UniProtKB/TrEMBL annotation:
GO cellular component: FACT complex
Entries under InterPro entries matching the protein: Creatin/AminoP/Spt16_N, Creatinase/aminopeptidase-like, FACT-SPT16_Nlobe, Pept_M24, Spt16
Biased composition (Polar residues): 1-10
GO biological process, one term: DNA replication
Name used for this protein in its record: FACT complex subunit
Source taxon at top rank: Eukaryota
Region (Disordered): 1-48
One MF annotation (Gene Ontology) recorded for this entry: nucleosome binding
Entry keyword set: Chromosome, DNA damage, DNA repair, DNA replication, Nucleus, Transcription, Transcription regulation
Domain FACT complex subunit SPT16 N-terminal lobe span(s) in chain numbering: 50-208
Subcellular location: Nucleus; Chromosome
Gene: SUPT16H_8
Function of the protein: Component of the FACT complex, a general chromatin factor that acts to reorganize nucleosomes. The FACT complex is involved in multiple processes that require DNA as a template such as mRNA elongation, DNA replication and DNA repair. During transcription elongation the FACT complex acts as a histone chaperone that both destabilizes and restores nucleosomal structure.
Species this protein is from: Perkinsus olseni
Amino acid sequence: MTDPTLSPATPANGRRSEGSGSVKLEGSSSPKSTSSNQQRQQAEKKAAGESFVRRMMRMFDHWPEKQQAVALVAGELSDDAVEQKTLAMQQWLLGGELPETIMVIFGGDEKKRSLWILSDQRRVDMLERLLTGVPLDGKFTIQYEVLNGNNDTAVYDKVFSTAKTMAGDRKCQVGLLKKERHVGKMAKGFTKYCSSTETMAHDCIANATATVSSWLVVKDAEEVENMKRSAVFSTLLMKQVMVRDVESVIENDTKKTHEAICDTVESAAENKDMLARWAKKFPYLGEGKAVDVMYTLIQSGKEFKLRPDVQPNQEALDFSCIVASVGAKYREYSTNITRTLIVDPTKHQRAYYNLCLSTMDTIIKSGKEATVVMAIGGGG
Protein backbone atom coordinates (compact mmCIF):
# COMPACT_ATOMS: atom_id res chain seq x y z
CA MET A 1 0.00 0.00 0.00
CA THR A 2 2.24 2.74 -1.27
CA ASP A 3 1.32 6.02 -2.85
CA PRO A 4 -0.04 6.07 -6.41
CA THR A 5 1.90 7.11 -9.44
CA LEU A 6 0.99 10.74 -9.97
CA SER A 7 -0.30 11.97 -13.29
CA PRO A 8 0.97 15.24 -14.83
CA ALA A 9 -2.34 16.95 -14.15
CA THR A 10 -5.46 16.19 -12.18
CA PRO A 11 -8.89 17.52 -13.28
CA ALA A 12 -10.87 19.80 -10.99
CA ASN A 13 -13.20 16.92 -10.10
CA GLY A 14 -10.27 14.99 -8.67
CA ARG A 15 -10.66 12.11 -11.12
CA ARG A 16 -7.91 11.23 -13.55
CA SER A 17 -8.96 10.38 -17.08
CA GLU A 18 -8.41 6.90 -18.46
CA GLY A 19 -4.75 6.18 -19.04
CA SER A 20 -3.46 9.39 -17.46
CA GLY A 21 -2.06 7.73 -14.38
CA SER A 22 -1.75 4.34 -12.75
CA VAL A 23 -2.19 3.22 -9.19
CA LYS A 24 0.50 1.24 -7.47
CA LEU A 25 -0.85 -0.29 -4.31
CA GLU A 26 2.11 -2.42 -3.31
CA GLY A 27 5.82 -2.38 -3.86
CA SER A 28 6.93 -4.34 -6.90
CA SER A 29 9.81 -6.75 -6.72
CA SER A 30 12.04 -8.38 -9.29
CA PRO A 31 14.95 -10.82 -9.27
CA LYS A 32 17.25 -7.82 -9.54
CA SER A 33 15.90 -6.20 -6.38
CA THR A 34 18.59 -5.80 -3.76
CA SER A 35 18.16 -7.07 -0.24
CA SER A 36 17.98 -3.52 1.09
CA ASN A 37 15.24 -2.62 -1.38
CA GLN A 38 13.25 -5.68 -0.39
CA GLN A 39 13.62 -4.81 3.28
CA ARG A 40 12.51 -1.25 2.58
CA GLN A 41 9.47 -2.46 0.64
CA GLN A 42 8.55 -4.85 3.44
CA ALA A 43 8.89 -2.06 6.00
CA GLU A 44 6.73 0.26 3.88
CA LYS A 45 4.07 -2.40 3.44
CA LYS A 46 4.05 -3.12 7.18
CA ALA A 47 3.71 0.59 7.98
CA ALA A 48 0.94 0.98 5.40
CA GLY A 49 -0.94 -1.99 6.87
CA GLU A 50 -0.70 -0.54 10.36
CA SER A 51 -1.90 2.82 9.04
CA PHE A 52 -4.86 1.13 7.32
CA VAL A 53 -5.95 -0.55 10.56
CA ARG A 54 -5.41 2.61 12.60
CA ARG A 55 -7.55 4.69 10.23
CA MET A 56 -10.28 2.07 10.05
CA MET A 57 -10.43 2.16 13.84
CA ARG A 58 -10.65 5.95 13.79
CA MET A 59 -13.74 5.59 11.61
CA PHE A 60 -15.30 3.01 13.93
CA ASP A 61 -14.52 5.11 17.01
CA HIS A 62 -16.30 8.10 15.44
CA TRP A 63 -19.22 6.24 13.95
CA PRO A 64 -22.56 8.02 13.32
CA GLU A 65 -25.04 6.74 15.86
CA LYS A 66 -27.96 6.20 13.47
CA GLN A 67 -26.16 4.58 10.52
CA GLN A 68 -25.33 0.89 10.30
CA ALA A 69 -23.11 1.22 7.24
CA VAL A 70 -21.49 3.70 4.86
CA ALA A 71 -20.98 2.86 1.18
CA LEU A 72 -18.23 4.53 -0.86
CA VAL A 73 -18.82 4.14 -4.60
CA ALA A 74 -16.17 4.62 -7.29
CA GLY A 75 -17.10 4.16 -10.93
CA GLU A 76 -15.07 4.14 -14.12
CA LEU A 77 -12.24 6.60 -14.67
CA SER A 78 -13.80 9.61 -16.34
CA ASP A 79 -13.60 13.39 -16.35
CA ASP A 80 -17.40 13.35 -16.04
CA ALA A 81 -17.28 11.62 -12.65
CA VAL A 82 -17.43 13.66 -9.43
CA GLU A 83 -16.11 11.47 -6.63
CA GLN A 84 -13.75 13.62 -4.58
CA LYS A 85 -14.61 12.25 -1.15
CA THR A 86 -14.65 8.63 -2.29
CA LEU A 87 -11.24 9.02 -3.93
CA ALA A 88 -9.93 10.80 -0.85
CA MET A 89 -11.10 7.90 1.32
CA GLN A 90 -9.48 5.36 -1.00
CA GLN A 91 -6.20 7.26 -0.87
CA TRP A 92 -6.47 7.66 2.89
CA LEU A 93 -7.13 3.99 3.58
CA LEU A 94 -5.29 2.14 0.81
CA GLY A 95 -2.92 4.64 -0.77
CA GLY A 96 -4.43 4.59 -4.26
CA GLU A 97 -7.49 5.00 -6.43
CA LEU A 98 -9.73 1.97 -6.97
CA PRO A 99 -12.06 2.53 -9.93
CA GLU A 100 -15.18 0.38 -10.23
CA THR A 101 -15.02 -0.59 -6.57
CA ILE A 102 -17.57 -0.22 -3.79
CA MET A 103 -16.36 -0.18 -0.20
CA VAL A 104 -19.06 -0.76 2.41
CA ILE A 105 -18.04 -0.14 6.02
CA PHE A 106 -20.27 -1.68 8.70
CA GLY A 107 -19.80 0.04 12.04
CA GLY A 108 -23.24 0.15 13.63
CA ASP A 109 -22.49 -2.82 15.91
CA GLU A 110 -19.15 -2.88 17.73
CA LYS A 111 -19.08 -6.69 17.62
CA LYS A 112 -19.79 -6.86 13.88
CA ARG A 113 -17.44 -4.24 12.48
CA SER A 114 -16.37 -5.08 8.96
CA LEU A 115 -15.21 -3.77 5.61
CA TRP A 116 -16.85 -5.21 2.51
CA ILE A 117 -15.11 -4.78 -0.84
CA LEU A 118 -17.31 -5.18 -3.92
CA SER A 119 -15.62 -5.23 -7.32
CA ASP A 120 -14.80 -7.41 -10.30
CA GLN A 121 -12.81 -10.61 -9.88
CA ARG A 122 -9.48 -9.04 -10.85
CA ARG A 123 -9.66 -6.21 -8.33
CA VAL A 124 -11.03 -8.45 -5.60
CA ASP A 125 -8.09 -10.82 -6.08
CA MET A 126 -5.63 -7.91 -6.06
CA LEU A 127 -7.06 -6.39 -2.88
CA GLU A 128 -7.24 -9.75 -1.15
CA ARG A 129 -3.54 -10.29 -1.85
CA LEU A 130 -2.78 -6.76 -0.71
CA LEU A 131 -4.65 -7.02 2.58
CA THR A 132 -3.63 -10.57 3.45
CA GLY A 133 -1.37 -10.43 6.47
CA VAL A 134 -2.53 -7.01 7.65
CA PRO A 135 -2.72 -7.25 11.47
CA LEU A 136 -6.46 -6.91 12.11
CA ASP A 137 -6.15 -8.59 15.53
CA GLY A 138 -9.88 -9.30 15.59
CA LYS A 139 -10.77 -5.59 15.53
CA PHE A 140 -12.84 -5.97 12.35
CA THR A 141 -13.21 -8.35 9.42
CA ILE A 142 -12.80 -7.95 5.67
CA GLN A 143 -15.24 -9.57 3.24
CA TYR A 144 -14.94 -9.70 -0.55
CA GLU A 145 -17.85 -9.87 -2.99
CA VAL A 146 -17.45 -10.23 -6.76
CA LEU A 147 -19.56 -8.09 -9.09
CA ASN A 148 -20.15 -8.80 -12.78
CA GLY A 149 -21.69 -5.43 -13.66
CA ASN A 150 -24.81 -6.92 -15.23
CA ASN A 151 -27.00 -8.28 -12.45
CA ASP A 152 -25.51 -7.84 -9.00
CA THR A 153 -28.79 -7.62 -7.10
CA ALA A 154 -27.98 -10.69 -4.99
CA VAL A 155 -24.79 -9.04 -3.68
CA TYR A 156 -26.56 -5.77 -2.95
CA ASP A 157 -29.35 -7.67 -1.18
CA LYS A 158 -26.71 -9.26 1.03
CA VAL A 159 -25.31 -5.81 1.92
CA PHE A 160 -28.67 -4.37 2.94
CA SER A 161 -29.77 -7.57 4.67
CA THR A 162 -26.66 -7.32 6.85
CA ALA A 163 -27.39 -3.66 7.60
CA LYS A 164 -31.01 -4.43 8.52
CA THR A 165 -29.98 -7.27 10.79
CA MET A 166 -27.53 -4.93 12.48
CA ALA A 167 -30.25 -2.29 12.90
CA GLY A 168 -32.61 -4.71 14.65
CA ASP A 169 -35.72 -2.83 15.77
CA ARG A 170 -34.26 0.52 14.75
CA LYS A 171 -34.62 2.15 11.34
CA CYS A 172 -31.95 0.87 8.96
CA GLN A 173 -29.67 3.55 7.52
CA VAL A 174 -26.89 3.09 4.97
CA GLY A 175 -25.00 6.28 4.23
CA LEU A 176 -24.10 7.37 0.69
CA LEU A 177 -22.26 10.40 -0.65
CA LYS A 178 -25.35 11.71 -2.40
CA LYS A 179 -23.71 14.62 -4.22
CA GLU A 180 -21.18 12.47 -6.02
CA ARG A 181 -21.72 11.54 -9.66
CA HIS A 182 -20.57 8.23 -11.10
CA VAL A 183 -19.80 6.82 -14.53
CA GLY A 184 -19.95 3.15 -15.50
CA LYS A 185 -22.30 0.20 -15.42
CA MET A 186 -21.28 -1.13 -12.00
CA ALA A 187 -21.51 2.17 -10.11
CA LYS A 188 -24.76 3.17 -11.78
CA GLY A 189 -26.18 -0.28 -11.09
CA PHE A 190 -25.56 0.15 -7.37
CA THR A 191 -26.93 3.70 -7.20
CA LYS A 192 -30.00 2.62 -9.19
CA TYR A 193 -30.55 -0.21 -6.71
CA CYS A 194 -30.25 2.25 -3.83
CA SER A 195 -32.79 4.66 -5.33
CA SER A 196 -35.37 2.01 -6.22
CA THR A 197 -38.55 1.59 -4.19
CA GLU A 198 -38.59 -2.12 -5.05
CA THR A 199 -35.30 -3.22 -3.48
CA MET A 200 -34.10 -3.83 0.06
CA ALA A 201 -32.51 -0.37 -0.03
CA HIS A 202 -35.92 1.33 -0.07
CA ASP A 203 -36.21 3.88 2.74
CA CYS A 204 -32.72 2.96 4.03
CA ILE A 205 -30.51 5.54 2.31
CA ALA A 206 -29.01 8.39 4.35
CA ASN A 207 -26.46 11.09 3.56
CA ALA A 208 -22.91 10.25 4.67
CA THR A 209 -21.21 13.49 3.58
CA ALA A 210 -20.81 14.91 7.09
CA THR A 211 -19.68 11.53 8.42
CA VAL A 212 -16.93 11.09 5.82
CA SER A 213 -15.79 14.68 6.30
CA SER A 214 -15.47 14.11 10.05
CA TRP A 215 -13.27 11.06 9.44
CA LEU A 216 -10.91 13.00 7.21
CA VAL A 217 -10.73 16.28 9.11
CA VAL A 218 -8.49 15.05 11.95
CA LYS A 219 -4.93 14.46 10.75
CA ASP A 220 -2.35 12.16 12.30
CA ALA A 221 1.34 13.08 12.50
CA GLU A 222 2.17 11.55 9.12
CA GLU A 223 -0.64 13.46 7.41
CA VAL A 224 0.35 16.74 9.05
CA GLU A 225 3.91 16.28 7.80
CA ASN A 226 2.66 15.53 4.28
CA MET A 227 0.55 18.70 4.34
CA LYS A 228 3.53 20.77 5.50
CA ARG A 229 5.62 19.40 2.65
CA SER A 230 2.84 20.13 0.19
CA ALA A 231 2.64 23.69 1.55
CA VAL A 232 6.38 24.15 1.03
CA PHE A 233 6.05 23.09 -2.60
CA SER A 234 3.05 25.39 -3.18
CA THR A 235 4.92 28.31 -1.62
CA LEU A 236 8.04 27.73 -3.71
CA LEU A 237 6.00 27.65 -6.91
CA MET A 238 4.27 30.87 -5.92
CA LYS A 239 7.25 32.89 -4.64
CA GLN A 240 10.03 31.68 -6.90
CA VAL A 241 8.12 31.11 -10.12
CA MET A 242 4.73 32.81 -10.43
CA VAL A 243 5.47 36.04 -8.54
CA ARG A 244 8.88 36.41 -10.19
CA ASP A 245 7.33 35.92 -13.62
CA VAL A 246 4.66 38.53 -12.88
CA GLU A 247 7.28 40.97 -11.57
CA SER A 248 9.37 40.45 -14.70
CA VAL A 249 6.39 41.18 -16.95
CA ILE A 250 5.60 44.36 -15.02
CA GLU A 251 9.19 45.62 -14.78
CA ASN A 252 9.84 45.05 -18.49
CA ASP A 253 6.38 46.28 -19.49
CA THR A 254 5.84 43.23 -21.70
CA LYS A 255 2.70 41.43 -22.80
CA LYS A 256 2.06 37.98 -21.39
CA THR A 257 -1.26 36.20 -21.05
CA HIS A 258 -2.67 34.70 -17.88
CA GLU A 259 -2.52 31.29 -19.53
CA ALA A 260 1.14 31.70 -20.48
CA ILE A 261 2.10 32.66 -16.92
CA CYS A 262 0.33 29.58 -15.59
CA ASP A 263 2.11 27.43 -18.18
CA THR A 264 5.41 28.77 -16.87
CA VAL A 265 4.55 27.61 -13.36
CA GLU A 266 3.44 24.16 -14.47
CA SER A 267 6.59 23.75 -16.57
CA ALA A 268 8.73 24.70 -13.58
CA ALA A 269 7.10 21.95 -11.52
CA GLU A 270 8.38 19.44 -14.07
CA ASN A 271 11.82 21.02 -14.39
CA LYS A 272 14.25 18.45 -12.97
CA ASP A 273 17.03 21.01 -12.49
CA MET A 274 14.78 23.33 -10.49
CA LEU A 275 13.43 20.48 -8.38
CA ALA A 276 17.00 19.33 -7.73
CA ARG A 277 17.94 22.82 -6.49
CA TRP A 278 14.94 22.95 -4.19
CA ALA A 279 15.65 19.40 -2.99
CA LYS A 280 19.01 20.53 -1.59
CA LYS A 281 17.07 22.36 1.13
CA PHE A 282 13.92 20.22 1.06
CA PRO A 283 15.10 16.66 0.21
CA TYR A 284 11.58 15.24 0.01
CA LEU A 285 10.94 17.32 -3.13
CA GLY A 286 13.44 15.08 -4.89
CA GLU A 287 11.41 11.93 -4.26
CA GLY A 288 10.30 10.37 -7.52
CA LYS A 289 6.80 11.50 -8.53
CA ALA A 290 5.96 12.65 -5.01
CA VAL A 291 4.94 16.19 -6.01
CA ASP A 292 2.60 17.55 -8.64
CA VAL A 293 0.72 20.73 -9.54
CA MET A 294 -3.02 20.62 -8.86
CA TYR A 295 -3.94 23.88 -10.55
CA THR A 296 -2.65 27.34 -11.42
CA LEU A 297 -4.74 30.45 -11.89
CA ILE A 298 -4.04 34.12 -12.39
CA GLN A 299 -6.60 36.87 -12.96
CA SER A 300 -6.12 40.60 -13.27
CA GLY A 301 -7.98 43.81 -13.98
CA LYS A 302 -11.41 44.56 -12.51
CA GLU A 303 -13.37 41.31 -12.87
CA PHE A 304 -12.51 38.21 -10.86
CA LYS A 305 -14.11 34.78 -10.58
CA LEU A 306 -12.96 33.43 -7.23
CA ARG A 307 -13.74 29.76 -7.81
CA PRO A 308 -11.29 26.83 -8.01
CA ASP A 309 -12.74 25.52 -11.28
CA VAL A 310 -11.95 28.69 -13.27
CA GLN A 311 -9.36 28.30 -16.02
CA PRO A 312 -6.75 30.97 -16.90
CA ASN A 313 -7.71 32.89 -20.02
CA GLN A 314 -5.68 34.33 -22.88
CA GLU A 315 -6.06 37.95 -21.87
CA ALA A 316 -2.84 39.87 -21.25
CA LEU A 317 -1.84 40.58 -17.67
CA ASP A 318 -3.35 43.84 -16.39
CA PHE A 319 -0.89 45.67 -14.13
CA SER A 320 -3.50 47.14 -11.77
CA CYS A 321 -4.78 44.36 -9.49
CA ILE A 322 -3.61 40.75 -9.79
CA VAL A 323 -4.89 37.65 -7.98
CA ALA A 324 -2.59 34.64 -8.36
CA SER A 325 -3.18 31.10 -7.07
CA VAL A 326 -1.18 27.89 -7.05
CA GLY A 327 -2.34 24.50 -5.78
CA ALA A 328 0.11 21.63 -5.38
CA LYS A 329 0.29 18.27 -3.70
CA TYR A 330 2.78 16.02 -1.99
CA ARG A 331 1.84 12.35 -1.88
CA GLU A 332 -1.79 13.25 -2.58
CA TYR A 333 -2.01 15.87 0.21
CA SER A 334 -2.97 19.15 -1.40
CA THR A 335 -2.43 22.76 -0.38
CA ASN A 336 -2.88 26.04 -2.18
CA ILE A 337 -1.71 29.61 -1.80
CA THR A 338 -3.27 32.79 -3.19
CA ARG A 339 -1.60 36.17 -3.42
CA THR A 340 -3.12 39.56 -4.20
CA LEU A 341 -0.70 41.91 -5.94
CA ILE A 342 -1.65 45.56 -6.39
CA VAL A 343 0.49 47.84 -8.53
CA ASP A 344 0.35 51.54 -7.53
CA PRO A 345 -2.61 51.02 -5.17
CA THR A 346 -5.12 53.76 -4.52
CA LYS A 347 -5.80 54.97 -0.98
CA HIS A 348 -8.94 52.81 -0.78
CA GLN A 349 -7.16 49.72 -2.14
CA ARG A 350 -4.37 50.14 0.38
CA ALA A 351 -6.86 50.50 3.25
CA TYR A 352 -8.85 47.40 2.25
CA TYR A 353 -5.68 45.39 1.70
CA ASN A 354 -4.30 46.29 5.13
CA LEU A 355 -7.65 45.45 6.73
CA CYS A 356 -7.68 42.00 5.11
CA LEU A 357 -4.05 41.44 6.06
CA SER A 358 -4.59 42.35 9.71
CA THR A 359 -7.70 40.15 9.84
CA MET A 360 -5.75 37.21 8.46
CA ASP A 361 -2.93 37.78 10.97
CA THR A 362 -5.43 37.83 13.83
CA ILE A 363 -7.04 34.59 12.67
CA ILE A 364 -3.65 32.87 12.36
CA LYS A 365 -2.56 33.99 15.83
CA SER A 366 -5.90 32.94 17.34
CA GLY A 367 -6.10 29.57 15.61
CA LYS A 368 -4.46 27.50 18.31
CA GLU A 369 -5.26 23.93 19.28
CA ALA A 370 -8.64 23.48 21.02
CA THR A 371 -9.79 26.97 19.99
CA VAL A 372 -13.44 27.11 18.94
CA VAL A 373 -13.86 28.70 15.50
CA MET A 374 -16.80 30.82 16.67
CA ALA A 375 -14.58 32.31 19.37
CA ILE A 376 -12.09 33.50 16.73
CA GLY A 377 -14.89 35.26 14.89
CA GLY A 378 -16.18 36.86 18.08
CA GLY A 379 -19.30 34.69 18.20
CA GLY A 380 -20.92 33.34 21.32
